[in-house]
Amino acid sequence: MKIAHIVCSYPPYYGGMGNVVFQIASEQVKQGHTVEVFTPGMFASEEIRSSEAPQAKTHRAALTEQIDFATRLKPSISYGNAARLPGIGKELDRFDVVHLHYPFFGTANLVRKWKQKNPEKPLVITYHMDTRSPGWKGLVFTVYTKYWMPKILESADAIIASSVDYIQASDAAAHYATHKDKWHALPFGVDTERFTVQEKPVSLMAQLGLNPEVPTLIFVGGMDAAHHFKGVPVLLKALALLKSQNRVTQCILVGDGELRGSFELTAQGMGLGPFVRFVGKVSNDMLPVYYNAADLCILPSLHKGEAFGMVLLEAMASGVPVIATDLPGVRTVAEDGGMTVPVNDYREIAATVEEYFSGPTDRDVWQTRVRSVAELKYAWPPIVRQILSLYTDLLKK
Fold first, then answer.
1. Backbone φ, ψ for residue 133 (5° rounding)
2. Which domain holds residue 171?
3. CATH no. for residue 123?
4. Does 17 lie in the same domain as 144?
5. 195 lies in a domain?
6. What is the pLDDT of residues 193-235, one digit of tens each?
7. Host H or E run for residue 249
8. Is 281 within 8 Å of 55 (Cβ atoms)?
9. Which site in 128, 180, 331, 349 is 20 to 30 Å from 158, CA atoms measured?
10. What are the helix (H) ranges across 245-283?
11. With the C-alpha atoms ordered 13, 14, 18, 21, is the resulting torsion angle positive or negative?
12. Is 119 helix (H, G, I), strand (E, B) or coil?
């Protein structure tokens, strides 16, 4: 099959949607299909081939190396991860299946219009997450969700969501209730060959000035305005509470963005300087090593902008149990591989961390359990086979 994916962000931009699409595209190519990913950018098609997906703060920055499968179309207008790609329609005619990853403000409606002109071509939409933002952007999201989102979803032949739990609580719940035959629950996956259980990286810990014998937490996530919902301030409050109770805990925070500086200042103001390390973006090769430096992975997200939590799967595949907030979709992953806590409750995060390290926990059992869950439930190859099977069924209709 010739498959087109359309997504608002893509590696090297640090974000869950783009990395999900990169993994799906990679696996579809491995399984013998031709794949192209359309995403905003300023790059000619001959610049687009490389073997890895490095991380960077923004896909607007000039790249010396491009990413597999990406065709970066010049937007007529863009703001953050929203972009209007006026050339998308003429690109899609040459594909057997078109797969739109929602939300994509500015372009999703262009894909809907393309579908109206090409009703015989299968259109699949993955509904990744609701959109939330403070201020005027939040108002724009609300209006768009009320008026345009139902029309966009209606244009799809099939819609994928990461869990029924999430979609029933999402902004698309009304559409799901009346179109259940269109919806398919398929989790996102993890590269279980890249993320594996390894020995604790003592040399990395020494480089960071951390004690490998001290309980270590890890947070992985964007620290830009688009990822404000990741809840870093809540995590810092939990760490400060543990410190005040003389529960020595250290934390590695992986990720970058314009909010990082303020987070670092907050941590210093709380007296957490000796116990936290903001390491910024890390390379693809090093990210699994960082996970193996940790005993627990924390995802303290604040609202339904977090629909799944890819970092939870990466941690679990690395043998690291997780603590995440009790959000629809996120909890379906966290309950398999760790513990959930109420949203925006730093006291409960601290108490759960304390209970894990002070209780009769067999960490080897946890390590084996969460790795097994990642392998059996979230490995990419069988998940992608189900996506391809869905494509095939649509092509037969």
1. -165, 150
2. 2-189+379-396
3. 3.40.50.2000
4. yes
5. no
6. 999 999 999 999 999 999 999 999 999 998 988 788 899 999 9
7. none
8. yes
9. 331
10. 260-269
11. positive
12. coil
Distance of CA 178 to the CA centre of its chain: 28
- Domain for residue 270, yes or no? yes
The residue with tokens 């603590």 is 323
Cα–Cα distances (Å) from 222 to 15, 229, 330, in that order, read 7, 10, 17
Kindly state whether residue 196 falls inside one of the protein's structural domains: no
Q: Put residue 290 in one of left, alpha, beta given phi > 0 → left and psi -120 to 50 → alpha.
A: alpha
Separate counts of helices (H) and strands (E) for the chain = 15, 15
Pull the structure tokens for residue 252: 């590695």
At residue 84's C-alpha, the angle toward residues 78 and 90, to 5°, is: 145
The tally of domains found in the chain comes to 2
Provide the sign of the torsion angle of the four alpha carbons 367, 372, 373, 379, taken in this order: positive
Residues 260 and 157 in one domain: no
Evaluate whether residue 65 is within a structural domain: yes
15-43 pLDDT, tens digit per residue, is 678 889 999 999 999 999 999 999 998 54
CA 354 to chain centre: 27
